Amino acid sequence: MQNNLWRALLAGAFVLTADAALAETTLTVSSYGGGYQEAQAKAYFAPFAAAHPEITIRQDSPSSNAKLKAMVESGAVDWDIMVTDDSFGLDSDAEWLEPIDYSIVNRDKFIPGTAGTYRIASDIEATVLAYDANALPAAPQGYKDFFDLEKFPGMRAVWKYAPSGIFETALLADGVPADKLYPLDVERALKKLDTIKDHIVWWDTGAQSEQLLDSGEANMGLVWVSRAVSGADQGIKIDWTQWTSQSGYWVVPKGTKNREAAMKALEFFTEPAQQIAFTQYMPYGPSNKTAVAGVSETFKGNLPTDHLDNRVLMDADWWAKNGADVDMRFQEWLLE
Amino acid sequence: MTLSSPAIPRGPTLVERLPRGSALLVPALLFLLLFYVYPLAQLIGASLPGGSGKNYALIFSRPVFLRVIAETFRVSLVVMAVTVLVAFPYAYAMANAGRRALLFLTIALLIPFWVSLLLRSFSWIVLLQNTGLVNQVLLGLGLIEKPLKLIRTETGVILGMVHVLLPYAVLPLYSVMKKIDMRLMEASSICGASWFHGFRRVYLPMALPGVMAAAILTFTLALGFYITPALLGSPRDMMIAQMIAGQFSEQLNFGLGAALAVVLMGLTALAFALFGLGRVLLARRAAA
């Protein structure tokens, strides 16, 4: 009995060392978990491991800009790659990130505006105008209709987050031309928002936004495209007249010991074959321009990249500079 | 010259003066020092970047922060009062119940306690929303014509928070109440006291330590509530913990987030001190 136990342990140790000898590098990748990360594992991580047996990918979740920052500041960098959102990975975040090595990653393959000094887009996501086709008298067309309480009475679900696109949405609805959005006229946007303030239900989590639309609590909403698509069987439709960009980005924390392997992985993850595979599982478009035309049929028509011409590109640099002030003003406005 | 001062009888040293068995506290104290005092000191440090108090200046100059802090304390006080009022009869029933009833009451209390906070908040949404169960039943029965506004109101927040906090009030109350000798109530009624008089003069003073413990526990926990007010309240019901989380995870402004946390902690300590003072005053009144 005792003997068997020792033998088993010894065998285990042997397997472990054998494994370690084969895989010299372990890359730890952190993403947002859930279906999103599962899709990334199937489309990116598994093929990468097959193509590079010397590199093992260890997954972690959830991604957190705050955690990455704390890791770098304390000198204990456990992540080699992290998926992040629009608000992070800008030039103003240089302190915490390795620059993307464009001698390994091909910069020219990306859709304009999605490859920066410290980040490259993993996929193109969107905040869209979703609506309950059964509850509305007609299909809304664009942000003007979102603010039109006469034609479209009822509650609207909106993300309670200043850089969610709500300021841009309000200004566009108020008649500001898309190319003159920035610098944002915050007070004008809030004045426009005042006109529907009593008809807004704010949401904090993606699940909440989906619940609001599915239950009929709200009949219109500015929600993430994935949440809108998963309500399709409940009669939730998407108005693609205008949409705000909201993407996923790869970043590499400063001080990682596997910088080169991480860059190699990023180049691989953003190749057309992998990005097209990803569109089988998630309604997010590829960031690689040659992959856009070849996307899977699963969500075709509801991928943000199918509507690139209508994209309202958010100015992440403007938000990085002014985000804190706008947020404070937004919080004050919410309490008014 | 010789300094032969008369030997002063030496008092006990500091170590000797400690009560016996103090050494047993060492592991707990070390743990607190390492995992509470040290990170706390770091938090205070983070709130003062480069020794500058600009984060605190900002908090006390923008009305948004003071308003949310005041709101947090007000909601926590209401939640504390409601929770203790609801918990009192429940704990009384538990303390005086037979074996089977006690088992049932305990299970009914603890099962929701083990369910995730997020899940419970979402369940309240399903019940309280305009298209939710409560409103549909009332509409169906013809008792109301328009859905009642139950969710995204302060009522919703208080309901959700009381539900979450109930066990924290019931358990300390129960542990005090089950030690109260009910024959004292009989004695008081033999002496001619009405039930209410006996309750007020005999039972309540003995249950008071439990009430105090329940009140302190629920109030302090309520101050830190985050997800329940976010899901069940309107933006006007924002509590300070939501703001702290926003500064850390959305704004990445660790300094301001830390300063807000320190202010919350300071005010909580103040509230504790007031509770303590109240207790001393009550004890004095009882002794007099």
Automatic annotation (TrEMBL), chain A:
Q: Which CDD domains match?
A: PBP2_polyamine_RpCGA009
Write down the Pfam families for this protein, in alphabetical order: SBP_bac_8
What does UniProt give as the signal peptide span? Answer: 1-23
* UniProtKB keywords: Signal
Q: Which InterPro entries match?
A: SBP (IPR006059)
Q: Which PANTHER family match?
A: ABC TRANSPORTER SUBSTRATE-BINDING PROTEIN (PTHR30222:SF2), SPERMIDINE/PUTRESCINE-BINDING PERIPLASMIC PROTEIN (PTHR30222)
Protein name per the record: ABC transporter substrate-binding protein
Q: Which organism is it from?
A: Paenirhodobacter ferrireducens
Lineage of the native species? Answer: Bacteria, Pseudomonadati, Pseudomonadota, Alphaproteobacteria, Rhodobacterales
